[in-house]
Design brief:
Elements lengths: L2 E3 L6 E3 L1 E3 L11 H13 L4 E3 L8 H9 L9 E6 L14 H15 L4 E6 L8 H13 L3 E7 L3 H14 L6 E3 L13 H8 L2 E5 L26 H7 L5 H16 L4 H10 L4 E6 L4 H8 L8 H10 L7
Parallel strand pairs: 3-10, 4-5, 5-6, 6-7, 7-8, 8-9, 9-10
Antiparallel strand pairs: 1-2
Helix pairs in contact: 1-2, 2-3, 5-6, 8-9
C-alpha cells in the first residue's frame, strides 16, 4: 500500500482509505463491517473515515466495534460533525457547544480516547469561523483530537480559515474532504489549487461516482440486483450519475480499461490519485469482492496517453 502525507503535516495515510457512508452499520451489518475493516487493515489500509450523521451514529458504532481488537496506534480515524443529530436547536452546526458535544459523542461510539482527524462536514453560515477554529484548537490542546479539517467548503472559506488561524496562532486545518471523480471534476478549478497553496491534503469521497464508474450500470438495462440504485437510501445519491450521457462515458471507460488489462475501478481511482494534493481516495464496499476491486488500484499509475483519453471522455466541468 502506498502512503502519502496528509498535506503539509506529518501524518501519513493510505492512498486508499475505507469510508463508511451507506455501508458500515447500514447496508453492511455489524459482523460484515468487522470483516471488511479487518480485511482492509490487513491489506495496508490505515485510514478509516466516518461521520456522526452516517445513519445517525450507526456507522461510527459499527466502526468502533470493528476496530476494538486492532492496534489503535496503527489506525487513522477520521470523523465529522455539522448536520443535525436531533431536533435540539444546538445539536447542529459548528458552534463551540455542538463541536464539543459531537466530538464526545463520536468518541463514545468509536470506543476511543481521541480521533486523529476531526472534520467540519459543511461550512456553517451561522457560526463565526473564529469560534469554530478556537474550539478545534482547544480540543487539540486537550488531546481529544490530533488534527482537524473541513469538507465541502468553498475555496474562499478555506482561505479565510487558514489565514485566520495563522493570524491568531491557532492550529489550522490540515485536510479537506471534497467530492471528486471523473464525472465531477469541478474542484480542479479552485479547490485543488487553494488546498495546494495552503498545504491541505485532500481525502476525496465518491471517487467511483456511487458505482457508476464501475460499469455495473448499463444504458437501457435495469440496475443489478443488490446495487445501490435498488435501495431507497442509495438510489437518491446514485441517480445523478445514471443519465444517458454519463452512462455512455462509463461504457467508454470500461472499454478503455480493458485495452490496458485494467478494471474501470483501477482507472477511476488512479485518476484521482494522479493529483499529489490528493492524499487518499475514500472507497465504500459492501462485500469482500468490492473491497478487493478497490484495493487493486493501489500502485496503478496513468501514463500521458491514458490521461488524454480520460480527459476526452470526461472533460473538466464547472468550478466547485
Amino acid at each position: 500500500m502506498e502512503y502519502r502525507n496528509l498535506g503539509s503535516c506529518g501524518l501519513r495515510v493510505s492512498a486508499i482509505g475505507l469510508g463508511s457512508w451507506l455501508t458500515l452499520g447500514s447496508a453492511v451489518d455489524a459482523a460484515g463491517s468487522t470483516r471488511l475493516v479487518h480485511a482492509a487493515f490487513e491489506r495496508g489500509v490505515n485510514l478509516f473515515d466516518t461521520a456522526d450523521i452516517y445513519d445517525h451514529g450507526a456507522a461510527e458504532t459499527a466502526l468502533g466495534a470493528a476496530i476494538a481488537d486492532l492496534p489503535r496506534q496503527r489506525l487513522v480515524l477520521a470523523t465529522k460533525c455539522f448536520f443535525p443529530m436531533s431536533d435540539d436547536p444546538n445539536d447542529r452546526g459548528l458552534s463551540r457547544k455542538h463541536v464539543f458535544e459531537s466530538l464526545h459523542g463520536s468518541l463514545r461510539r468509536l470506543g476511543t480516547d481521541y480521533v486523529d482527524l476531526y472534520q467540519c462536514h459543511r461550512f456553517d453560515e451561522h457560526t463565526p469561523v473564529l469560534e469554530t477554529a478556537r474550539a478545534m484548537h482547544d480540543l487539540i490542546t486537550a488531546g481529544k483530537l490530533l488534527y482537524w479539517g473541513v469538507s465541502q467548503w468553498p475555496a474562499e472559506r478555506i482561505t479565510e480559515v487558514m489565514e485566520l488561524c495563522r493570524r491568531e496562532g491557532l492550529h489550522a486545518p490540515v485536510a479537506n474532504q471534497p467530492l471528486y471523480n471523473l464525472m465531477e471534476r469541478g474542484i480542479e478549478a479552485a479547490i485543488l489549487p487553494t488546498c495546494a497553496r495552503h498545504g491541505l491534503g485532500l481525502l476525496v469521497y465518491s471517487p467511483l461516482a456511487q458505482g457508476a464508474l464501475t460499469g455495473k450500470y448499463r444504458q437501457g438495462q435495469p440496475p443489478p440486483a443488490g446495487s445501490r440504485a435498488t435501495d431507497a437510501q442509495g438510489s437518491q445519491w446514485v441517480g445523478r450519475y445514471l443519465t444517458p450521457a454519463r452512462l455512455a462515458a462509463a461504457e467508454e471507460l470500461v472499454a478503455l480499461a480493458a485495452l490496458r488489462s485494467l478494471t474501470p475501478m483501477q482507472l477511476a481511482l488512479a485518476f484521482c490519485l494522479r493529483e499529489r494534493t490528493v492524499a487518499s481516495v475514500l472507497v465504500g464496499a459492501r462485500d469482500q469482492r468490492q473491497l478487493d476491486q478497490n484495493l487493486a488500484a493501489d500502485g496503478v499509475v496513468l501514463d500521458d496517453e491514458l490521461r488524454r483519453d480520460l480527459d476526452r471522455i470526461f472533460p473538466a466541468g464547472p468550478a466547485a
